[in-house]
C-alpha cells in the first residue's frame, strides 16, 4: 500500500492556499501545527534493546546451542518460522517491566487502607526529583510511593543487600512516621478545640447532608405514592363498584338534567 | 541589730518560689540541661509564676497549690490565679521526676532533623524494668501493650504539642462507690493513660471539651443580663450532635492521678536544643526520668476482673 502523506502535508498545502488566496482566513490550528509539525518519518525502526531490561529484544541462538545430540549435527540455518518470530519481536513495542510496579502492588495489597487516603491526582508543577536518603520529603505527603522509592534507594546505595530486607526497612520507617502523624493530627485537633475552635462539617458530611435533603423529598413522594397505591389496591371490587355507582349516578343526573332541559 | 524585730509584722502571707532538692542554681542537670538551660526552664519560670500568683492573690490567703487548681478551675473570675497556680504546679511536677543522666553534653541539631527518618533500633537505656520498678512496668505493659508502645505514645504526644503544654502519664481512679476501699481511704486505679494539657491546663480538670462554653456562660452572667429568654425546645428523643454529646456526656466521672509530666514548652528546650531539637530533648527527657518517683505516686491497683 502506498504511504499516505496527504494528511502530514496539511501545513504546506494550507500555506500555499493562503499564499494563492484560496483561503482568506488563517485556520485556528495553523500556528500550533507550525510549531509542532507532524513527523514525516514513516520508516519503522527495529528496537534492538528492550529499554526496561536493557536486554536484546531478539537474538539468534549461539552456535553451541544449535547442536542437536540426537541427530549429531548443528542446525546452521534458521528456518522461516524462526526468522519470522525473531523479526516480529524487533518491531513490537517491548513489555516494560519495573521492580517498582511489583513493590507498589505488594505494598498496597498489604496496606489496602492506604488507598483510601486523599491524593492529589492533578499536578501542574511538573515532575520533581527527590532525594530518598530520608523517607520524608518536603512537598510530598507520606504514602506508598515513598516506601517504594526508599526501598529502591536502599538497594541502590547498598545499605540493604536484598530487596525484601530493604522493603521491610522502608516499611518500618513508614510505620514510625505514620504513628507520629496520627498522634500529631489528634493533638492538633484537641489543642484547637481547647482554644475554642468549632469544626464545621467535613466535606463528606456536607455531601451526605445535601444528599439527605433530596432523599427526604423523595421519601415524602414515595410515601404519598405508596399510600395512593395501597388505597387503590385495598379493596378493588369496592372501589370499582363505588366508582361505577358514582358514574351511574352521574349519568342519571345528566339524564335528569336533559329531561329538565 | 534589733532593727529586724522592730519592723511591724505584716499580716499578709505570700507564696515562696518552690525549690527542688536535685536542682541547684549555677549548675546544670547533666545530660539534659546546661546551666543556662536549667535557669530558663525552671528557676526563671518558677519565680515568674510565684510572683504573679502573689500579685493576683494580693497576699490575702495561702492555700496549697493543688486546692487552688481544684477549686478555681471552672471559675471565670479567678482564672488568672488558676492559670498561675496550675502552671506552677505542672512545672514543679514535671521537674520533680527529672534527674540527670550520664549521656554526653548536647549539641544543637540542624534543620536536617526535620526530615530525618526515625531510627529503627530502639536504643533507650532508661527502662523501668531494669531500674527495679516491677509494679510500674507491669502496669505500663498491661495498659499500653508494651513499654515500647508506651514510650512512642508518650513522646509523640509531647512532640505534637505546638505551643506550651505538658504530657502526663496518669492513672484513672476506680469509681469506688460500692467498694469498701472507699471507707478505708485507699485510692485505687484501673488503667494508665497518656494525657495532654495545653497552656495552663491541669490533669485534675482534664475535661477540656466544655470549658470554653462554660467560661462563656460565666462571662455572660458577669455582664448585665439582656432581657432575652431562650426557648428551649429540647426533645428527649432527639439525638444530640457530636459536639453537644461530648460537652454533656463525656468523661463525666473520671478522675486522674498524675504520675509523670513532660514539659513541652519551648521555654524548656529552646535554650539547649535549638529550634530543631525537640526530638533530641524528648529522648534525653526519657533517659532522665526517675522511675522510682513515678512508682511512688502510683496508687494501688484495683483487682481487675477483665481478661487481659
From TrEMBL, chain A:
Compositional bias ranges of the Polar residues kind: 228-237
Residues of the signal peptide: none
Principal place of residence: mitochondrion
One Pfam match: MRP-S25
Recorded GO CC terms: mitochondrial small ribosomal subunit
UniProtKB keywords: Mitochondrion, Ribonucleoprotein, Ribosomal protein
UniProt-annotated location(s): Mitochondrion
Entry GO MF terms: structural constituent of ribosome
Keyword field contains ATP-binding: no
Chain residue ranges for the region called Disordered: 228-261
Coiled coil region boundaries: none
Subunit comment: Component of the mitochondrial small ribosomal subunit.
Similarity comment: Belongs to the mitochondrion-specific ribosomal protein mS23 family.
UniProt name for this protein: 37S ribosomal protein S25, mitochondrial
TrEMBL record, chain B:
Every Manganese/iron superoxide dismutase C-terminal domain range: 235-297
Any Pfam family hit: Sod_Fe_C
Source taxonomy: Eukaryota, Fungi, Dikarya, Ascomycota, Saccharomycotina
Record-given protein name: LALA0S05e03136g1_1
SUPFAM superfamilies assigned: Fe,Mn superoxide dismutase (SOD), C-terminal domain
GO cellular component: mitochondrial small ribosomal subunit
GO MF annotation terms: metal ion binding; structural constituent of ribosome; superoxide dismutase activity
Function: Component of the mitochondrial ribosome (mitoribosome), a dedicated translation machinery responsible for the synthesis of mitochondrial genome-encoded proteins, including at least some of the essential transmembrane subunits of the mitochondrial respiratory chain. The mitoribosomes are attached to the mitochondrial inner membrane and translation products are cotranslationally integrated into the membrane.
Entry-linked InterPro entries: Mn/Fe_SOD_C, SOD_C_sf
